[in-house]
Amino acid sequence: MSPEAQRGSVVYDVSDWISDVMSGFKPRVVSLLYASDSKLFNVTSPSGSVRLSQDLPRGNTAYSLAVLAEYQANLSLVFLICLKMAAKVGTPTIPPPTSDYREIVVQVSENVPVGTTLIQDLGSVVGIQGDRHYDIASGNDARLFEIDHVTGNIYTIAEVDYEQGRFYRLVVRITGSENDVSVRETAVFAVVVINVDDVNEYRPVFPVPVYRRTMFGSQVSGSFVTTVRAVDQDSGRFGRLQYRPEVPTSFFVVDRNFGHVWLGNPVVMTSLSGDGVIRMGITVLAEDAGGWTDQVRVELTVRRGSTATAAKFTTDVFEFEVRGSATVGHVIGTLSVTGTESALFSLRHPSQYFSVDKHTGRVVVVRDLHTMFTAGLQVGYRPTDNHLILIIVTCAVNKLGEYISVA
């Protein structure tokens, strides 16, 4: 930093750092988080230019600053800067006060009691001795944590829930106590990463006790019967369910990941089939990663003849709401029809953002969504008699609200 720098002069610019660290993203706000002389500097947002608020005083040779760049509600970066006064020719160089950065990772299980201590004496953990003052500078927007300003103990002040947040990044500013003049202007920043461990809180639950389906005429092996789907309020690995028959059988096949049920053996209707009705059934289990299960019954009736009811969508227009930040695998909604028990959905033309589950009609995100885009999707519905009905799905996403419509 030039000793001739005056009020209004740009003494540093963090814009290069910002573009290198977060390629493709621009910060919404850049602000001065800390400065050894807070009255001397200010930061222009969002460019990140560090300017002098007044002329440089005599005597000081170095200053430490922390600049906060906020990209999104849950994403921010802290840049640590040490500005050193450029020495004139023949002038000895005086080393500046040290400004350092440390990172600590802590694991905590969700739903631990409020008041649980996560770190004791943060100063000792990062290797700092002596009296210090501790403050959480950023990363505590959810107001879940607090730090003792004297001891450096970090503890919870609200319930930590994995379903609400899987990790937190606290930036803690450590400065010298008011009585310790030698370290008063030295700031050490410790970044505490708190990873929340998932706990298996909920059991899987089927919304109905029985799935009843009717099929007509002889059926070949592999004919689709139905899809069973349980609900588990856990997220993460404990929210991912797998499906299996309660008792192994060759009559049905159950898809392990999605709960689709098919016929394992063919069903042949003959004149010897009694009253022309064949009844079959299977009990399907849904199991989470913790071993908790629920079960549902699938009852299949096969009759002679064929269905005479024409397939029809349950509504002329389907409208679903979806966030622009939805990621791959997110289910936007389900298309439904009446008049048939066996239906296959398919895309008329491929879409880079959406897909439709072949058997259930669920509209699924296949590419992470971003704000400010419009994508089109054409979907075809094909019942067992190969009758084809076409629909068009359009999606418009913006910053105010995102909707997907089927017409």
Brief overview, please?
The protein is mostly beta strands. It contains 2 helices and 30 strands.
What tags apply to this protein structure?
single chain; about 400 residues; mainly beta; Immunoglobulin-like; 4 domains; 30 strands; about 5% helix; about 45% strand; disordered C terminus
State the helix count.
Answer: 2
Number of strands: 30
> Structural class, judged by helices and strands?
mainly beta
State the domain count. 4
CATH architecture of the largest domain: Sandwich
Could you tell me the CATH topology label of the largest domain: Immunoglobulin-like
State which percent range the strand residues make up: 35-45%
Mean pLDDT: 76
What does this structure look like?
Strand 10 and strand 11 form a beta hairpin. The protein has a five-stranded antiparallel β-sheet with strand order 22-30-29-28-25, with no helix packed on it. Strands 7-13-12-9 form a four-stranded mixed β-sheet. The protein is an all-beta fold. The C terminus is likely disordered. It starts with 9 loop residues before the first strand and ends with a strand. The longest helix is centred in the first third of the chain and has 7 residues. The chain is built from two helices and 30 strands. It folds into four domains: 96 residues, Sandwich (Immunoglobulin-like); 102 residues, Cadherins (Immunoglobulin-like, Sandwich); 94 residues, Cadherins (Immunoglobulin-like, Sandwich), CATH 2.60.40; 95 residues, Cadherins (Immunoglobulin-like).
